[in-house]
Amino acid sequence: ERTVMGAVFIRNAHRIITVCADGKICLTNLVTKRMEWVIEGHKESINAVAISSDQKYVATASSDGTAVLWG
User: Fold this and answer.
1) Would you tell me how many other CB atoms lie within 10 Å of the CB of residue 46?
2) Which residues lie below 8 Å from residue 42, measured CB to CB, with a gap of 6+?
């Protein structure tokens, strides 16, 4: 079980991106309730997540001192 630290909804896609204390980023389909993918993006807890207005990019920031732009 993961401790979720933040979440953003993907507009019109029925999906949510969650970031967790274990440093993982997950994409979950809200219709099927299935996780579509998991990325091990940081070495420590992810504290923040944001999605760009065009929904092409996701930014994450972690306790390990890193920020990553995904897209």
Assistant:
1) 25
2) 23, 60, 62, 63, 64, 66, 68
The burial class, CB within 10 Å (0-12 / 13-18 / 19+), for 33 is exposed
**Rounded CA gap, 50 and 58, in Å?**
6
59 vs 70: CA distance, rounded Å: 6
Is the pTM higher than 0.85? Answer: yes
pLDDT band at 1 (very low <50, low <70, confident <90, very high): low
Type of residue found at 48 = A
